[in-house]
Amino acid sequence: MSVYSSNITHRSFYWQISAVCFILGLILAAAAVTANQVSRSGNGFTRTGFSYDVRNFVQARNKDADYETVLKQKSDYITNLETKLSKGNGATSLLSKTLQETRFSAGLTDALGPGIQIVLADSQKTQIVGVDGMKQSILIHDSDINSVVNELKACGAEAIAVNGQRIVASTSIRCVGPVIHVNGVPAAPPYIIQAIGDQDALMGGMNLPGGVFNELRHFDPDMIRMEKRSNLKLPAFGGSPKMRFAHPPPTPGADSDKDTPSSKDNQ
Amino acid sequence: MKAWLPVASLAAGFGLGSFVLLKWKIQFAPEFAVYLSVAALAGLDTVFGGIRAGIEGRFQNDIFASGFLLNTLLAAGLAWLGDRIGVSLALVAVLTLGTRVFLNLSLIRRYYLNKLAMARTKAQEGADLAQAQAGAQLAAQQQK
Questions:
Q1: CATH architecture for segment(s) A54-234
Q2: Which is nearest to B33 in space by CA: B80, B74, B73, B68?
Q3: Closest residue in chain B to residue A50, using alpha carbons only
Q4: What is the pLDDT of residue B21?
Q5: A 8-37 near B (Cβ less than 8 A)
Q6: B47–A contact, CB cutoff 8 A
Q7: What pTM was computed for the model?
Q8: DSSP state at residue A222
Q9: Of A39, A162, B13, B27, which sits 20 to 30 A from B112 (CA to CA)?
């Protein structure tokens, strides 16, 4: 008398059950391996499905670094020429000074000064979030960075950089897959936001009750680190300030406006 | 022990499957995880259903084999179809198959508990009979 034989027919069915159990084992293995894989790659809209080809990514980043070096050399060359120009007579020196000031306020030169540094890191904790009860870690999203930058501007920050990318008029901060692009350059957590301005005003603005960090602090206070820094050095905007579509209105009183595109269109 | 053969072959299948998948780094698309799980559950249901049919004396090779094949494919296929038309049929499959697995398991358990109880009663009866016989013998000897 045994488990896999019947009392009634006395027919055993070991082999059938065993054969099917073998195939069932194979299917279970496939299911287990796949489920394991899925759980390891994360879930939710945060980090799922972005299987990055790391080698291509590293190559592209190295290429970017090369271009950045070339760009830095060129802009250094331009600054050098402008410095030489300023050593000329009064008019050119005034012109050059105005140019330098304009470039500085546009964020095209490095900026030094006191300010605050904010480090935003993804939470190490996993929490149950959402209706499906899936475990998710709380991540820093582009909207968080955007609201922080906006709040810093509102508190009178004069120069802001996110992960070494200067915030200028044309800056975009946008989530692209698992990373956030600032000025089109990918930035990975932790996000370091530096701002030059009145330190107390900036700190106060960040700590406003119900302010930008309200929700993040509620989830996990460890995600945010803030400190005052007496001498910050913010890098210059690395991209091109050239505009393809917008152009200034023709200067009144200029003797010739031949060069403006609008007059070209009229001709 | 013959009774351990299915368990051993299940373990062998699982081991071989994991080994092959991990050794040659065969990966299924993450969307297939749920279909594979539903298929595995359908296979489990068929195995327990087969054992139950066997102890009830209704085991038939063709029904068992076709049931295993079709149930796994149907469960996975229905789950897939459900995802295509936006209805979570995978949940329905899990619910139905899970209920059947538990039902079959409880029937199998009941059957063996019954058998155990019967065997115990039989043994008790045997013992009682032996005692009665011994008593009768003793009485006969005393009468002599």
A1: 2-Layer Sandwich (3.30)
A2: B80
A3: B30
A4: 86
A5: 8-9, 11-14, 16-35, 37
A6: yes
A7: 0.45
A8: G
A9: B13
